[in-house]
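Go through this chain.

——
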Amino acid sequence: MDKKRLDYYKKKLLTRREELMKTIARTEEEGRQADDDPTVDLADKAANSYTKEFLFGMTNTDRALLNLIDAALKRINVEEYGTCLNCEEEMQQKRLEAVPWAKHCINCQEKAEKGQL
């Protein structure tokens, strides 16, 4: 992959990473604020508990995506980005455009989802 294309994907990944970091921080703060609400009604406490669990669940999903983005940035730095980690074929540009943190080409990803990888 040429340098210009790598820089494009690196910027795209860094932008998405920054968005995720802001989202995670905001979600964690909202979760903390749900604890600070001095409700005494049992239904309100249950609603706050549900909201807190929901927000922290979102945070876990965002953190998983953040880990995938960090791994993709590392692959850029070691010049392995854009190559499938399984078959070592170059990934299609459409694949990287849609999922810039992808580790596998479409065929290998399908195998991985079926447990065949």
User: Anything to note?
Assistant: The domain at 3-113 is CATH 1.20.120.910 (Four Helix Bundle (Hemerythrin (Met), subunit A)). The chain has one domain: 3-113.
